[in-house]
């Protein structure tokens, strides 16, 4: 059974979990966004499969829609926001040395976490 977690902004499903990578299917509800965050032990690649939004990479704001991808370097501040009317769904591939949720350093969060 896939790991599944519901968050204030939406939900995610773990599709693969290996010693050298982790793959998630992430769903961001309309009008919601993840915390502005960074990771010390992993980089990420995001590929949008449905919906549209904006990805923050450091000081840059990048439009993000189905068929597009972004790379998030180790230590890069990042966030994703759903600016559309339908769920924003993307596949996240994590690579690095550690993939635990406790490697999330929240710089700003709408939900007080």
SSE inventory with pairings:
Layout: E1 3-7, E2 10-17, E3 21-28, E4 36-38, E5 42-50, E6 52-57, E7 60-65, E8 69-72, E9 78-82, E10 88-96, E11 105-108
Antiparallel strand pairs: 1-2, 2-3, 3-10, 4-11, 5-8, 5-10, 6-7, 6-9
Structure explained in plain terms:
- The strands form 3 sheets. Strands 1-2-3-10-5-8 form a 6-stranded antiparallel sheet, with no helix packed on it.
- The chain is built from no helices and 11 strands.
- The relative contact order is 0.30.
- Helix content is 0%, strand content 59%.
- It has one domain: Jelly Rolls.
- With 113 residues, the protein is mainly β.
- The mean pLDDT is 96.
- Strand 6 (52-57) and strand 7 (60-65) form a beta hairpin.
Task: Describe this structure in a few short sentences.
This protein is mostly beta strands.
């Amino acid at each position: 059974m896939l790991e599944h977690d519901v968050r204030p902004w939406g939900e995610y499903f773990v599709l693969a979990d290996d010693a050298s990578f982790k793959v998630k299917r992430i769903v961001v509800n309309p009008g919601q966004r993840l915390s502005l965050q960074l990771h010390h032990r992993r980089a990420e690649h995001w590929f949008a499969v449905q919906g549209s939004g904006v990805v923050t990479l450091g000081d840059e704001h990048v439009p993000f829609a189905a068929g597009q991808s972004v790379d998030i370097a180790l230590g890069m501040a990042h966030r994703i926001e759903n600016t559309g009317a339908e769920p924003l769904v993307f596949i996240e591939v994590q690579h690095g040395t550690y993939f635990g949720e406790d490697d999330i350093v929240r710089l700003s969060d709408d939900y007080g976490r």
